[in-house]
C-alpha cells in the first residue's frame, strides 16, 4: 500500500506470522484544521478554512475529507478489506503531529508504530524501494507526540464509515459516492461544511440498494447513489433560495 497509514500498518505487520497475535490496528489522524473547535464554530467554517490543513499539502477534495474526518473513515474501510481485520479491531486515534503514521497493537499490549515526517515521498519511496529504505527520520526535529480520541459528534462521518462496515452490502459504495458529491458541492459553495455529513447520513440510511455481486453492479450502484446525492444537493439549494 502507498497511502501513509496503510503503508505504516503493512510495515508494522512485517514478521508477524500469526494474525491471532494482533489485538488491533491503530490508524492515526491529524484531526484536520478544525480540531478542538466547537460544533457551532465548525459549522461556520468556509472552503478556505477547510483547505488549510496543518500538516499536509494535498488537493482540495482529500483536504476537505481530512477536515470532516471522512478520509479517515475511508481508510478504516480500506484497512478492513486490505488487511482482513474486523471493524471492531480497527481503532482511530487523533495524533496532531502526524509523525506516527499508524500502529499495530499485539496481544500482549505491545504497540509497534511506524514513524516518519509528514511527507508522502517517504511512503512512495518505501513502496518503490521495498524491501530497502531510502529516507531517514530526524528525531532532533520532533518535540512532542500527543494523542486524542476523535470526536464523532463534531465529525460524524468517521462514525458513518464504521456503520457502513456494519451494514455491509452496498453501504460503503453509497457513503463514498455521497461524500464525493457533497465535497464537490461544498467546494463550489452550494452547501455548508456540516451539510456534507447531513448528505452522507441521508444517503446511507435512506438508500440501501441490493448488494452488488460483480463490478458492473458496483458501478451501477455508485452511479445511482451519485444521482440521488446530486438531487439532494439540488433540493437543498432550492430550499435556501426559497
Per-chain topology:
Layout: H1 4-12, E1 22-29, H2 39-43, H3 47-50, H4 60-68, H5 70-82, E2 90-94, E3 100-106, E4 111-115, H6 120-129, H7 157-167, H8 171-187, H9 195-206, H10 215-241
Helix pairs in contact: 4-8, 5-7, 8-9, 8-10
Quick structural summary:
The chain has 242 residues and is an alpha+beta fold.
Describe the overall structure.
The chain is 48% helix and 10% strand. With 242 residues, it is α+β, with helices and mostly antiparallel strands. The protein is globular. Helix 4 packs across helix 8, helix 8 runs antiparallel to helix 9 and helix 8 crosses helix 10. It has a four-stranded mixed sheet, with helices on one face. The longest helix has 27 residues. The mean pLDDT is 89. The termini are far apart.
- What form results from the Cα inertia axes? globular
Radius of gyration computed on alpha carbons = 19 Å
Counting helices, strands and paired strands, the structural category is alpha+beta
| Low-pLDDT stretches | none
Report strand order across the widest sheet: 2-1-3-4
Q: What distinguishing features does this structure have?
A:
242 residues, alpha+beta, four-stranded mixed beta sheet, 10 helices, 48% helix, globular
